[in-house]
Amino acid sequence: MQTTIFKIMTEEQWRQFDADGSFAGAPVDLADGYIHFSYSDQLAETAMRHFGGMAGLRIVAVDTIMLGTALKAEPSRGGALFPHLYASLPREAVRWVSPLVWREDGTPDWQPPAGAKDG
């Protein structure tokens, strides 16, 4: 089991989350009743499909161990399992945050901060 999952947030969502210490979700999360995350191998596709070309995005790496049983792997597009959190995300579960930028070919690019661990 992967111990790091990823959430893409707008700059405004990240700042509010960082200030509040908890994140209840983006509008799509609130509508669906859980917070959407991606595993590392799903992150690029999620970024392109749902955030393509948007500026001011952040990749938030989250420690799954800290989320407990509220985190579920459930089928989504094409039957692939995606992590869904049925609780608010605590700030303490964040391992690292990185800006997401777009390459000229339209693919996303991000770099974990130096010394970041992906468990």
Describe the structure.
The chain has 119 residues and is an alpha+beta fold. The protein has a single domain (4-109), classed as ADP-ribosylation fold (Alpha-Beta Barrel). The chain is built from three helices and nine strands; from the N terminus they run βαβαβαββββββ. The chain has helices spanning 11-20, 27-32, 43-51, and strands at 4-10, 22-23, 35-36, 57-63, 71-75, 81-85, 89-90, 94-102, 108-109. A four-stranded antiparallel β-sheet has the order 1-4-8-9. Strand 8 (94-102) and strand 9 form a beta hairpin. The protein is globular. The relative contact order is 0.25.
Tally of structural domains: 1
| Backbone CA Rg | 13 Å
CATH 2nd-level architecture: Alpha-Beta Barrel
In CATH, the topology is named: ADP-ribosylation fold
Most strands sheet: 4 strands, antiparallel
Per DSSP, the total helix count is: 3
CATH top level label: Alpha Beta
Shape by Cα distribution: globular
Strand order, biggest sheet? 1-4-8-9
Q: What percent of the residues sit in helical stretches (DSSP H or I)?
A: 10-25%
At the fourth level of CATH, the homologous superfamily is: Protein of unknown function DUF952
* Strand-residue proportion: 25-35%
Overall pLDDT score: 93
Topology of this protein?
Elements: E1 4-10, H1 11-20, E2 22-23, H2 27-32, E3 35-36, H3 43-51, E4 57-63, E5 71-75, E6 81-85, E7 89-90, E8 94-102, E9 108-109
Antiparallel strand pairs: 1-4, 2-7, 3-6, 4-8, 5-6, 8-9
